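Case study 2.
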Amino acid sequence: MRLWPVRRTSAGDSSNGLFATRDVHSNGHVAVAAARPARSRPLVNAALFMLTCLTTLLAGASLARNPLFQHQMGEADAKLRAARILLHADAAAAWVTAAAGGACAPDQRARIRSTATWAAATAASVVDTAYRAGGGTSLYSVHPLQRRFRDVHALTQHFLVKLDTLTTAGAVLAGAEADLTVF
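Prediction:
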Protein backbone atom coordinates (compact mmCIF):
# COMPACT_ATOMS: atom_id res chain seq x y z
CA MET A 1 0.00 0.00 0.00
CA ARG A 2 1.32 3.44 -0.89
CA LEU A 3 0.11 6.39 1.17
CA TRP A 4 0.90 10.06 1.06
CA PRO A 5 -0.34 12.99 3.18
CA VAL A 6 -3.35 14.77 1.77
CA ARG A 7 -2.29 18.24 0.77
CA ARG A 8 -5.76 19.62 1.08
CA THR A 9 -8.74 18.12 2.88
CA SER A 10 -12.37 19.01 2.39
CA ALA A 11 -11.90 21.77 4.97
CA GLY A 12 -8.68 22.99 3.34
CA ASP A 13 -6.56 22.04 6.33
CA SER A 14 -3.66 19.66 5.79
CA SER A 15 -2.67 19.57 9.46
CA ASN A 16 -5.28 17.05 10.53
CA GLY A 17 -3.21 13.99 9.64
CA LEU A 18 -5.51 12.45 7.06
CA PHE A 19 -3.97 10.37 4.33
CA ALA A 20 -4.99 9.49 0.80
CA THR A 21 -3.95 6.43 -1.10
CA ARG A 22 -2.68 5.91 -4.61
CA ASP A 23 -4.07 2.41 -4.87
CA VAL A 24 -7.77 3.25 -4.90
CA HIS A 25 -9.00 -0.31 -5.29
CA SER A 26 -7.25 -1.69 -2.25
CA ASN A 27 -6.80 1.31 0.02
CA GLY A 28 -8.86 4.25 -1.20
CA HIS A 29 -11.32 3.59 1.61
CA VAL A 30 -9.18 5.68 3.96
CA ALA A 31 -9.57 8.73 1.73
CA VAL A 32 -13.25 8.03 1.04
CA ALA A 33 -14.23 7.58 4.67
CA ALA A 34 -12.00 10.33 6.04
CA ALA A 35 -14.09 13.03 4.45
CA ARG A 36 -17.32 12.08 6.23
CA PRO A 37 -16.41 12.50 9.90
CA ALA A 38 -14.48 15.64 8.99
CA ARG A 39 -17.45 17.08 7.11
CA SER A 40 -20.00 15.94 9.70
CA ARG A 41 -18.48 18.05 12.51
CA PRO A 42 -19.41 21.41 10.91
CA LEU A 43 -22.86 19.98 10.25
CA VAL A 44 -23.34 19.06 13.89
CA ASN A 45 -22.17 22.52 14.94
CA ALA A 46 -24.51 24.20 12.42
CA ALA A 47 -27.37 21.91 13.44
CA LEU A 48 -26.83 22.72 17.10
CA PHE A 49 -26.86 26.45 16.39
CA MET A 50 -29.90 26.26 14.14
CA LEU A 51 -31.86 23.68 16.08
CA THR A 52 -31.30 25.23 19.49
CA CYS A 53 -33.16 28.29 18.20
CA LEU A 54 -35.98 26.15 16.77
CA THR A 55 -39.21 26.07 18.73
CA THR A 56 -41.19 22.96 17.87
CA LEU A 57 -44.93 23.03 17.38
CA LEU A 58 -46.80 22.66 20.68
CA ALA A 59 -43.58 22.57 22.72
CA GLY A 60 -43.43 26.24 23.59
CA ALA A 61 -39.66 26.07 24.17
CA SER A 62 -36.56 25.79 22.02
CA LEU A 63 -35.21 22.38 21.13
CA ALA A 64 -32.13 23.17 23.24
CA ARG A 65 -34.29 22.74 26.34
CA ASN A 66 -35.61 19.35 25.24
CA PRO A 67 -33.93 16.50 27.18
CA LEU A 68 -34.30 14.07 24.26
CA PHE A 69 -32.59 16.51 21.89
CA GLN A 70 -29.83 17.07 24.44
CA HIS A 71 -29.28 13.32 24.76
CA GLN A 72 -29.26 12.81 20.98
CA MET A 73 -26.76 15.60 20.39
CA GLY A 74 -24.49 14.33 23.17
CA GLU A 75 -24.57 10.84 21.70
CA ALA A 76 -24.01 12.12 18.14
CA ASP A 77 -20.99 14.12 19.27
CA ALA A 78 -19.46 11.09 21.02
CA LYS A 79 -20.06 8.86 17.97
CA LEU A 80 -18.47 11.37 15.64
CA ARG A 81 -15.41 11.84 17.84
CA ALA A 82 -14.95 8.07 18.20
CA ALA A 83 -15.15 7.56 14.43
CA ARG A 84 -12.56 10.26 13.79
CA ILE A 85 -10.18 8.93 16.43
CA LEU A 86 -10.31 5.36 15.15
CA LEU A 87 -9.98 6.46 11.53
CA HIS A 88 -6.97 8.61 12.37
CA ALA A 89 -5.36 5.81 14.40
CA ASP A 90 -5.73 3.26 11.60
CA ALA A 91 -4.47 5.73 8.99
CA ALA A 92 -1.46 6.56 11.19
CA ALA A 93 -0.65 2.85 11.61
CA ALA A 94 -0.86 2.36 7.85
CA TRP A 95 1.39 5.37 7.37
CA VAL A 96 4.02 3.89 9.69
CA THR A 97 3.94 0.64 7.70
CA ALA A 98 4.19 2.48 4.38
CA ALA A 99 6.96 4.80 5.62
CA ALA A 100 8.96 1.72 6.61
CA GLY A 101 8.62 0.49 3.03
CA GLY A 102 6.26 -2.34 3.89
CA ALA A 103 2.85 -3.31 2.64
CA CYS A 104 -0.15 -3.65 4.92
CA ALA A 105 -0.85 -7.25 5.88
CA PRO A 106 -4.35 -8.59 5.21
CA ASP A 107 -5.36 -8.21 8.86
CA GLN A 108 -4.26 -4.56 8.89
CA ARG A 109 -6.14 -3.94 5.63
CA ALA A 110 -9.20 -5.64 7.14
CA ARG A 111 -9.08 -3.34 10.15
CA ILE A 112 -8.65 -0.25 7.96
CA ARG A 113 -11.53 -1.30 5.71
CA SER A 114 -13.84 -2.09 8.63
CA THR A 115 -12.94 1.22 10.29
CA ALA A 116 -13.65 3.13 7.08
CA THR A 117 -16.99 1.37 6.67
CA TRP A 118 -17.94 1.97 10.30
CA ALA A 119 -16.85 5.64 10.13
CA ALA A 120 -18.99 6.25 7.04
CA ALA A 121 -22.01 4.57 8.67
CA THR A 122 -21.43 6.51 11.88
CA ALA A 123 -21.21 9.82 10.01
CA ALA A 124 -24.52 8.96 8.31
CA SER A 125 -26.04 8.19 11.72
CA VAL A 126 -24.91 11.56 13.09
CA VAL A 127 -26.40 13.40 10.11
CA ASP A 128 -29.61 11.37 10.48
CA THR A 129 -29.89 12.52 14.09
CA ALA A 130 -29.58 16.19 13.12
CA TYR A 131 -31.96 15.67 10.19
CA ARG A 132 -34.64 14.10 12.38
CA ALA A 133 -34.22 16.80 15.00
CA GLY A 134 -34.88 19.41 12.32
CA GLY A 135 -38.37 18.03 11.82
CA GLY A 136 -40.38 19.05 8.77
CA THR A 137 -38.05 21.98 8.12
CA SER A 138 -35.33 19.51 7.08
CA LEU A 139 -37.43 18.34 4.14
CA TYR A 140 -37.04 21.51 2.10
CA SER A 141 -34.43 21.23 -0.65
CA VAL A 142 -32.96 24.62 0.30
CA HIS A 143 -32.36 23.51 3.89
CA PRO A 144 -28.67 22.76 4.70
CA LEU A 145 -29.58 19.51 6.47
CA GLN A 146 -31.25 18.21 3.29
CA ARG A 147 -28.03 18.58 1.29
CA ARG A 148 -25.89 16.97 4.03
CA PHE A 149 -28.38 14.14 4.35
CA ARG A 150 -28.15 13.38 0.63
CA ASP A 151 -24.35 13.75 0.58
CA VAL A 152 -23.63 11.41 3.48
CA HIS A 153 -26.05 8.77 2.23
CA ALA A 154 -24.48 8.95 -1.23
CA LEU A 155 -21.12 8.19 0.38
CA THR A 156 -22.48 5.13 2.17
CA GLN A 157 -23.31 3.69 -1.26
CA HIS A 158 -19.65 3.77 -2.38
CA PHE A 159 -18.27 0.30 -3.01
CA LEU A 160 -15.26 0.87 -0.74
CA VAL A 161 -17.44 1.39 2.35
CA LYS A 162 -20.43 -0.82 1.61
CA LEU A 163 -21.63 -2.78 4.62
CA ASP A 164 -20.69 -6.21 3.28
CA THR A 165 -17.08 -5.06 3.55
CA LEU A 166 -17.43 -5.94 7.23
CA THR A 167 -18.14 -9.56 6.26
CA THR A 168 -14.90 -9.77 4.28
CA ALA A 169 -12.98 -8.02 7.06
CA GLY A 170 -14.44 -10.42 9.61
CA ALA A 171 -13.45 -13.41 7.48
CA VAL A 172 -9.87 -12.14 7.23
CA LEU A 173 -9.66 -11.50 10.96
CA ALA A 174 -11.11 -14.95 11.69
CA GLY A 175 -8.58 -16.61 9.39
CA ALA A 176 -11.26 -17.85 6.99
CA GLU A 177 -11.00 -17.90 3.21
CA ALA A 178 -11.99 -14.57 1.70
CA ASP A 179 -11.92 -13.03 -1.76
CA LEU A 180 -9.44 -10.16 -1.47
CA THR A 181 -9.52 -9.14 -5.14
CA VAL A 182 -10.77 -5.63 -4.37
CA PHE A 183 -9.81 -5.58 -0.71
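Residues 1 and 155 are 23 Å apart (CA to CA).
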